[in-house]
Design goal:
This protein is α+β, with helices and mostly antiparallel strands. It contains seven helices and twelve strands. The chain binds succinic acid (SIN) and manganese (II) ion. Succinic acid binds next to strand 11.
């Protein structure tokens, strides 16, 4: 899937791009049917909230689930990354599903992803980005992602290592800085149904609140990095900061539908 010049410009100016309803209901049904089973697994890649047993994230899912292995190579997700990062040689730095579970989903503090990629993983430059796919509706109540538009233009900001607020350590930005940035740029929270996509720059400041609703806010993130910008420190496990720098080879656009229909045919 190729982005238009207008979309590319919007991403470069604002630091993000929202694309509603990119995947069909049939494709999303295949993906969402897998999720409860994934989060129920007892394995290190599935982490839970600090104060409850609710799942928070499932990492590296493309290596342990056939459906998400296809999603990790899907052209509607990977090709926009190639365009925005200016290379057809990208690898998957991180691949995770964030649950933001109904009633129990906890916050993600204000941060830039590149701060963590730089401080923990020694990624040389911010030529990496996130492609998010909504696996459930994100609405105003269930802890949608919040962005400070244009904050990516400030480069990498001062950050502190927060290892206490949630179960997942993150390099976070202090409140005074956030106050200043929000006075300049405001806050947006793109919302939409399952199948919508959100692209955002590695230096865009973002966060999300807790989820007090009965609606889990499942979001899949592909953190794509240029192969010539591979990380140089291997402090975090490979399932969090991937050490396999093999370029992603895209699958055909109809791979999910073909898989779903073949499976239905085999079961009939
Ligand atoms: C992240 O910043 O990596 C995740 C934020 C979220 O899923 O709300
Ligand atoms: Mn982040």
């Amino acid at each position: 899937m190729k982005l238009t010049d207008t979309q590319i410009k919007e991403f470069e100016t604002e630091g993000y791009l929202f694309l509603p309803n990119v995947f069909s209901a049939e494709e999303m049904a295949l993906l969402t049917a897998e999720i409860p089973g994934l989060f129920a697994q007892n394995r290190p890649e599935v982490i839970h909230e600090k104060d409850s047993n609710a799942p928070r994230s499932a990492f590296y899912v493309q290596t342990w689930n056939d459906v998400f292995a296809m999603v990790a190579r899907h052209p509607r997700l990977v090709e926009p990354g190639m365009q925005m990062l200016g290379s057809d040689k990208l690898y998957m730095h991180q691949f995770k599903i964030n649950a933001k579970s109904a009633f129990d989903g906890a916050v993600w503090q204000w941060h830039q992803d590149y701060a963590t990629w730089f401080n923990d993983d020694d990624m040389p430059s911010p030529r990496a980005m996130n492609i998010a796919l909504f696996l459930a509706e994100a609405n105003e109540f269930n802890g949608p992602l919040m962005f400070i538009p244009r904050s990516h233009r400030l480069g990498r900001l001062e950050a502190g290592h927060d290892v206490t607020t949630t179960s997942y350590p993150l390099w976070t930005i202090d409140n005074d800085t956030i106050k200043r940035l929000v006075e300049e740029g405001g806050i947006v929270a793109p919302k939409g149904s399952a199948g919508s996509m959100l692209l955002f720059h590695g230096n865009l400041v973002h966060a999300s609140g807790s989820n007090l609703t009965p609606w889990s806010r499942w979001v899949l993130y592909l953190s794509l990095n240029r192969c010539d910008n591979a990380i140089r420190r291997f402090k975090r496990p490979t399932w969090i900061a991937n050490r396999d720098f093999t370029p992603i080879e895209m699958l055909p656009d109809d791979c999910l539908i073909t898989y779903a229909r073949n499976r239905q045919g085999a079961a009939a």
